[in-house]
Amino acid sequence: MLAGCGANKFRIENLAKTDIDVVADAHYQEVERILKELTVKIYKRNPRFLQLGGDGGGIRSIDGRVQQIFGKPGKLQFSELSVTGVDAIELALDRKFGGDRVFALMVGLTDMLRQAYGYKSEFFMFSELSEQQLYLSARNLEIALWRINTYLDEQKVPLVLTNSRNDERHNLSYARLFGKLISLQDMLAIIVSGHNQRVIRTVTLNVASVAFFPL
After folding, report:
1. End-to-end alpha carbon distance in the chain
2. pTM here?
3. Fewer CB near the last or first residue (10 Å), C or N of the chain?
4. Measured at the alpha carbon of residue 15, what is the angle toward residues 9 and 18, in degrees to the nearest 5?
5. How far apart are CA 87 and CA 42, in angstroms?
């Protein structure tokens, strides 16, 4: 069940919402919640990157990074990162990158998904969503997950640690969170497609070779 679906108190602004706006609100809120959870989990798995915060105001805590990424809605831009969106995901998984890979990764994922929602955090009667952008954002998540699991450093260790490796205790919770994000984006894409009476242009995805899709 989506978090907060029936818990919101009545506001006068809600009179300007259609059913699909309410659904979009719930999906966006759940996506942001999962992204925050993923940020915390990946930092706990990769605590060394907290010491590589560059000029990010001296932030060296997980809570500080979460607040930095999710404290404000809209497009994400930070002085310590020259890029955002899918370009930030690319940077996070570049062997030559010497900064905070977790920060770059989560800024990239969060900005890419926010872009799929038109950089809106709440939706009203005349808000427009693109089923194609929502669909492609789900494919980008699949590509990102594959790269996270397969891109290695010179010692054959993943550049960003997530799921369990070798003799570690079995843990696929990271993949499950990515799976939830993918499902949310795909489901909303289908709902918006039906509402807009437009067909989603699907793609054949080979995650090992395809580049991220522009939104």
Report:
1. 28
2. 0.89
3. N
4. 105
5. 19
pLDDT digits (tens, 9 = 90+) for 62-73: 999 999 999 999
Q: Please name the amino acid found at residue 200.
A: I
Contacts (Cβ under 8 Å, ≥6 apart) of 106: 35, 38, 39, 42, 65, 69
Count how many Cα atoms sit within 13 Å of the Cα of residue 34 in the half-sphere of its side chain.
23
Q: How far apart are CA 81 and CA 54, in angstroms?
A: 9
Spatial separation of the C-alpha atoms in residues 36 and 42, rounded to whole Å:
10
Question: What integer is the mean pLDDT of 84-89?
Answer: 98
Other C-beta atoms within 10 Å of 43: how many? 21
The answer to whether residues 138 and 117 touch, using CB atoms and an 8 Å cutoff, is no
As a whole number of Å, the CA-based R_g of the chain is 18
Domains in the chain: boundaries: 14-196
Q: From 67, 63, 113, 116, select the one nearest 88 (Cα to Cα).
A: 113
Residue 39, helix vs strand vs coil: helix
152 vs 205: CA distance, rounded Å = 22
Phi, psi at residue 54, to the nearest 5°? 55, -135
Share of the chain above pLDDT 70, in %: 86
